[in-house]
């Protein structure tokens, strides 16, 4: 049952969460549901047809099937008390993104929150994170920029006019940020995450006069389905793996986003990049296990 958001402070709000089949997107969608929101859960994986671009990562993780789907996430949103609406959308395709926001506008008449989370970087992951830039495959650029940063910009281009017209709204960009330190040994990843943070900042400058906020949120090391599989464990048994002691659940990030969406003064945070650990202290929420997990730093 819902824990942190019993007051349903987001009841009546309409959110779009991209890349919400699993991982961070799912954690965010579920917590928005717990806060009472109507959540459009988008991505490419449905129960009947999972996305087909994760073969390399599935093999590395020794998984036979891709975990999660937009349908399962939407069901969990509803179970937590919100309204979950699954819409299959390939966020690299402009026409599909345009149709998504046309559907939301037609059905709800507004968009209060967009969470940009769709990320293609996992599609080219080779199992090696730390290496000189000349040894990383150039395909990482395509997956992280053309199917990562571009996804965020594309969704924002369709959400922004709706928010500007209603003179309210929030765009959240999920990123990773470690106090402007270099993200150790992966130049492509560092560039992509820096670009996302800068995207949130730049959009904030243009949206602020219209009463619309844009900001980036940085989680720590999350126990996503692929992280758990890589450590040969699951959410019920991860504590037996000392290497995962510094991890947090995706719902910790979700609670951060829900808190921001419910903050009437969120415009004051517009343009910034905010770590989940810092937001937990500021808003007083915890992870699902009751901890306030410290920020993950390199």
Automatic annotation (TrEMBL):
It is an enzyme of class 1 (oxidoreductase). It comes from the Bacteria. The keyword Translocase does not apply. InterPro entries: NAD(P)-bd_dom_sf, SDR_fam. The keyword Oxidoreductase applies. Its EC number is 1.1.1.100. One of its GO terms (molecular function) is 3-oxoacyl-[acyl-carrier-protein] reductase (NADPH) activity. Pfam families: adh_short. Keywords: Oxidoreductase. Gene3D superfamilies: NAD(P)-binding Rossmann-like Domain. This is 3-oxoacyl-[acyl-carrier-protein] reductase FabG. It comes from Variovorax paradoxus.
